[in-house]
Amino acid sequence: MKVLLIEDEAGLILTLTDRLEAEGFAVKSAADGESGLHIALSENFDLIILDVMLPKKNGYDVCRDLRQKSVNTPILMLTAKGETIDKVLGLKLGADDYLTKPFEVIELLARIEALLRRSPKTLPNSTDAFSFGDVAIDFKRAEVTKNAQTVELSAMEFKLLHYLIENRGAVHTRNQLLDEVWGYDAMPSTRTVDVHIAWLRQKLEDNPKYPQYIQTVHGFGYKFNF
Prior knowledge:
Strand order of the largest sheet: 2-1-3-4-5
Largest sheet: 5 strands, parallel
Number of domains: 2
Helix content: 25-40%
Radius of gyration: 17 Å
Shape: globular
Order of helices and strands: EHEHEHEHEHEEEEHHHEE
CATH superfamily of the largest domain: Response regulator
Structural class: alpha/beta
CATH architecture of the largest domain: 3-Layer(aba) Sandwich
């Protein structure tokens, strides 16, 4: 497994590289956003660990540029900021998860394991393709189109959509979705699931305010209705 670490703190680079390599990962690092973006576009990685506060190009811009160039590698953002708006911004730009500094390395490893376990290539492919309304999904290629136009989804948005479709008709609580899709238990104040559901609706539903397919079951959670 190849990991790209984009981080400007030399001590943290050394610590994380040593620990990740001890866990069997091949690690490549970049100390600024511009070089990190270049490496991420030049090579294939299984995971990108991306700091927010970087010289030359911040992590938000790196994440946005990668997604705009259709790089769907799972991205775990590291941030020293604890404000919810900063976390939501990272997710909105295409990050799959975030971790606030300072953090325990064991928690980072758990998040990495969850992201890799739930990456699109490891999801069950009982259905290779699926369509609803004017949306078509190729699960093997991890491609989504609407009205024959490509829809750009982050890796986590795609994983969530895949899970809902594979389990269509069933109602899923937020905690269940965090466990099954993200791979870890919910924090009491989390809105991660709600945010990703909203983005999927914006991208795929004809009327996001009154969704036909990705529906809310009030008091319980969400379901894919088809």
